Amino acid sequence: MALQNNMDFPGSDVAQVYASDAKHCQQLCTAHPSCMFFTFVRPDWTRDNRHFYCYFKVTASGEPKIQTLIFGATSGYSLRSCTPELTEFPVYQNVDFLGADYKTLFTANYGDCQRVCTDDPFSWVRTPVEGVDFWGEDIQNRMVDSAEACQKACDEDDKCQFYTYLTEQFIDRDYRHRCFLKRTITIPAPPKIVKLQNVVSGFSLMAVP
To answer: What is the mean pLDDT of residues 91-120?
Structure first.
C-alpha cells in the first residue's frame, strides 16, 4: 500500500519505536503482531522534537478513526494484509541477484520466500543515512577511516545490528572517524534516532533480527 505523505492517523497507538524512514516504519509495523497502520514523524517535522518516531496503531475496523493533513508526518498500513497475493512485486525465473546475502533459510517455494523477505524489517533499510544518529546501545567503538569501513566493521561483527560513524567534519575533534557498533535485544530498530550533522548511520548487512 502506498505511503501517505503529510498525513497523520492520530490516536489508537499500541506502541512507539524509532525508525530511520517511513518505509522502515512500515516494515516494523508489518512485523508487529498487533499493528494495522502507522504514522511516522519525519525529520522535517517542526511542531516539536519527535523526529523519527514510528507509532504503531490498531482499531477494531482496521482503519484509522481520524485522518488529518499535517506537514512532517507520513502514514500508511501494515503490509501484512498485502502479503498473501504479492501481485505488485514480480519474480524472475532463472535469475540470481548475486551477493549481498545476510540471512539464509528454507522455505517451501519462492512465494513463501518472497513473503519472508517482505515481512523482514531489515530488508528495506540497506542504505546508510547521513545526518542521523542511531543513539545509544553501543557495544563497542573504534577508529576507522570512512563510513564504508564502519559498515564493514559492523558486517563482520556477529553482534552488531546497526552503527553510527562520525565523519571528519564532526564538531568534536576527539570523536572524528569514530565508529560505534550497536545492538538491541528487543525489536530490530535503534531505540532512539536523532538528527545530528556530520554523522552516517546504517544497518549491518549481515544482521539477523
So the answer is: 70
